[in-house]
């Protein structure tokens, strides 16, 4: 009987100490490996670079078009107008939606480090959703965008070739239209 009373008093003492630690702001729940894994996954999803989460092929191609336009520096007026034209004609967007897509794509592109360093990782979430027609159309749009102001530069050619190998070497889907 004295062993059971000693064991119960030890449990009560431990619980009381944990309660007092929690009142002081020290939470031992952080030592739980499952909650740690959940927090880590949440942090990776919501504090990471959003360019790596593009699942819509149209958004991914829009970012690539901005990357080609900005490969040699800032985007020129002709390149901006050509991007808006591509968005309205090929993607079947209104002028307002095309302007919004251009702004969002430019913001996602940022300084361009993500696209230049790991283009394949940027295209990974959306690559399986491209149909063969869309992939070929995307490559043609990228080539056209590269030759708007002058000949295609080495930086633009690198982006186009890496996009070509990523997009044309994937599993086709059923969707053939952009919108």
Describe this structure in words.
The protein is an all-alpha fold and 179 residues long. It has 9 helices and no strands. It has helices at 2-23, 33-47, 57-69, 77-89, 95-109, 113-117, 119-127, 132-146, 154-168. Helix 3 (57-69) packs across helix 5 (95-109), helix 3 (57-69) packs antiparallel against helix 9 and helix 7 runs parallel beside helix 9.
User: What is the overall shape?
Assistant: elongated
Rg, Cα atoms, Å: 26 Å
Instruction: Give the SSE order as H and E letters.
Output: HHHHHHHHH
Note the total helix count. 9
Mean pLDDT figure: 88
Strand percentage, roughly?
Answer: under 5%
Major sheet attributes: none
Structural class estimated from helices and strands: mainly alpha
| Number of DSSP-assigned strands | 0
Measured between the Cα atoms of the first and last residue, the distance is: 76 Å
Low-confidence stretches: none
* Helical content (DSSP H or I, runs of 4+): 55-70%
């Amino acid at each position: 009987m004295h062993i059971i009373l000693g064991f119960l008093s030890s449990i009560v003492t431990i619980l009381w100490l944990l309660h007092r630690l929690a009142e002081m702001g020290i939470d031992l729940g952080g030592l739980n490996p499952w909650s740690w894994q959940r927090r880590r996954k949440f942090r990776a999803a919501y504090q990471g670079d959003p360019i790596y989460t593009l699942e819509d092929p149209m958004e991914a191609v829009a970012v690539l078009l901005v990357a080609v336009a900005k490969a040699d520096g800032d985007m020129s007026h002709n390149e901006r107008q050509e991007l808006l034209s591509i968005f309205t004609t090929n993607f079947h967007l209104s002028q307002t939606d095309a302007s919004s897509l251009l702004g969002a794509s430019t913001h996602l592109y940022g300084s361009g480090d993500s696209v230049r360093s790991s283009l394949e990782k940027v295209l990974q979430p959306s690559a399986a959703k491209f149909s063969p027609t869309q992939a070929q159309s995307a490559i043609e749009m990228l080539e056209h965008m590269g030759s708007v102001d002058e000949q295609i530069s080495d930086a633009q050619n690198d982006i186009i070739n890496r996009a070509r190998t990523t997009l044309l070497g994937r599993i086709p889907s059923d969707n053939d239209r952009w919108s």
